[in-house]
UniProtKB/TrEMBL annotation:
The keyword Nucleotide-binding does not apply. This is UDP-glycosyltransferases domain-containing protein. The keyword Repeat does not apply. Belongs to the UDP-glycosyltransferase family. InterPro entries: UDP_glucos_trans, UDP_glycos_trans_CS. GO terms for molecular function: UDP-glycosyltransferase activity. Coiled coil: none annotated. Keywords: Glycosyltransferase, Transferase.
Length: 132
């Protein structure tokens, strides 16, 4: 069976999913964090290169897929995908990315619970707008 659309978040939440190859659009990044799944990032355009740099170099929750010519528009060889998947699944960088992603995911979930920082900020904004 082939489907035109699948719920990416539901797939990412499955317990057997241990990594996510993504072009690094912000919605996919947020879904990955919400699911606690580290990424292999392959940015192509728009905000994706900036997002991927942030995830790899700052948050360290992702590993980078390199194009053959090291440009955004370049092609990627199958050997590179294989190398990155191995790195993400069993390499030291991937193991560390998974640990950091688990911590970030837990923090994000904690921030969103009732009474958490996000909840308090939203209530404060609503109050300042005079809506409640």
């Amino acid at each position: 069976m082939v489907r035109e659309w699948v719920d990416q978040l539901e797939i990412l939440k499955h317990s057997n999913i241990k990594g996510f190859l993504s072009h690094c659009g912000w919605n996919s990044v947020l879904e990955s964090v919400a699911s606690g799944v580290p990424l292999a990032v392959w940015p192509m355009h728009a905000d994706q290169p900036f997002n991927s740099k942030f995830l790899v170099d700052e948050l360290k929750i992702a590993v980078r897929v390199h194009t053959s010519d090291r440009t955004i528009r370049g092609s990627v060889r199958s050997e590179e995908i294989s190398k990155v998947v191995r790195m993400l699944m069993v390499g030291e960088e991937g193991v560390e990315a998974a640990k950091r992603m688990a911590q970030l995911s837990a923090s994000a979930k904690e921030a969103m619970i009732e009474g958490g920082p996000s909840w308090k900020s939203l209530k404060e904004m609503i109050s300042q707008l005079g809506l409640k």
